[in-house]
Amino acid sequence: MTGVPGTARPDIAHPATYAHGVPHAEFARRRRDEPVAWVDEPLLTRHSASGRITERGRGYWAVTTHAAVQEASRRTGDFSSGRAGAFLVDPRTPADLRQTRQLLISMDAPQHVRIRRLVTSVFTPRAVGGLADGVAAHATELVRRAVRAGELDVVTDLAAELPLLVLCDLLGVPRTDRHLLYRWSNHLVGFDDPEFGGGDVDAYRRTFAEAFTYALELAAERRAHPRADLISRLAVAEVDGRRLSDREFCMFWLLLVVAGNETTRHLIAGSLSALVDDPEQRDRLVAGTVPMAAAVDELVRHVTPIMQFRRTATRDTELAGQPIAADDKVVLYYTSANRDPAVFTEPDRLDLGRNPNPHLAFGIGPHFCLGAHLARHELAALLRAILPHLPSLVRTGPEIRLESNFVNGLKSFPAQIR
Ligand code: HEM
């Protein structure tokens, strides 16, 4: 465990801490003793053509209670997504900041409202319902293959594959190119993991360039031959009477590629892991004594695949009694909010029938996750397909976790269906 220097406490800012699991006991302590508290960031090593560099972020306020995460998410005038982007790591250069601000997630009103409007209709429950047959067919086929093989890695064979296949259908990307989407998101989200991004700044930039080239070719093709997919729609979409620029289009595309596959992958893998570890809850699901919708939301809460997003204070203000200065970094820990005993009874327990379940795993406020219905839908489809085999799904080796302070992810979960 990577600790805070001079204490026995795990360092919640360090990506390596999470290789051993989310430090829930530390988050419980923070909620109790210091719900909004300053965190010094660790020194991290990066690589580039010009050699090794060490970087240290400027520190941030960690927000850990449900009430404070909710409040900061809603006070968008005080806590901005656009000022320095929605990610914990500060943009390295002014050009990086400009690029980050072209991501929907890193915009403020009114631009955020205008751009988000372009795609909201694609993600309504009704529109997602229209994808149901395709999602169910993919889930059934993946489970059928896994059962036939007997041996599987839950992460690569099931959890990664389903969102990639669904995303290809949604975006209109050939299914055979899904490994590209997989590699790009591994490199970007897994930037800190030695096996994926490895802290290599040049490789990170190359991944952007590669994904953008692909997106621009796709856009040109769809402008010439429009189809009924999301890419065709974005390629000709106009905001305030003008088309999205190439760069705006590419950033939107990349956000969908990363947000649409990585998150759901970790939700599915984390959910199956939790169910294997908790036969009592697994049996409730198999017996059909809990509604699927409630079970899915409880798994989303329990796993909380995205652990945090960031805001920046726009002025001197306060949050939960803590003074915060203009331009301070403020990090909203959904993973902690979702285990706040002030809101959830026995928060560490998986209770598939939990109701109500006001978790914040998809955020809250104007940036509420666009893909929430789709993600829930994918997990439900996979659970339905695997349900008859769930009691015979067993671990055959240790899980390997992603080194990331952003997503709660598994890289490997070796298993058998006996
Ligand atoms: C379990 C799966 C998922 C989780 C846990 C998750 C989590 C989140 C969270 C916490 C936010 C809010 C960010 C903020 O407040 O700064 C968000 C936003 C977003 N999500 Fe998801 N997400 C998931 C799946 C998806 C999927 C499947 C898609 C698309 C196909 C998607 C697309 C987006 C987009 C575009 C935004 C930005 C919305 C905005 O800024 O207005 N997400 N997501």
Automatic annotation (TrEMBL):
This protein's pathway: Antibiotic biosynthesis; mycinamicin biosynthesis
Pfam family name, one: p450
Signal peptide: none
Keywords in alphabetical order: Antibiotic biosynthesis, Heme, Iron, Metal-binding, Monooxygenase, NADP, Oxidoreductase
GO molecular function, one term: cholest-4-en-3-one 26-monooxygenase activity
Biological process (GO), any one: cholesterol catabolic process
Matching InterPro entries: Cyt_P450 (IPR001128), Cyt_P450_B (IPR002397), Cyt_P450_CS (IPR017972), Cyt_P450_sf (IPR036396)
Alphabetical list of CDD domains matching this protein: CYP142-like
Top-rank taxon: Bacteria
The family this protein is said to belong to: Belongs to the cytochrome P450 family.
Full protein name: Cytochrome P450
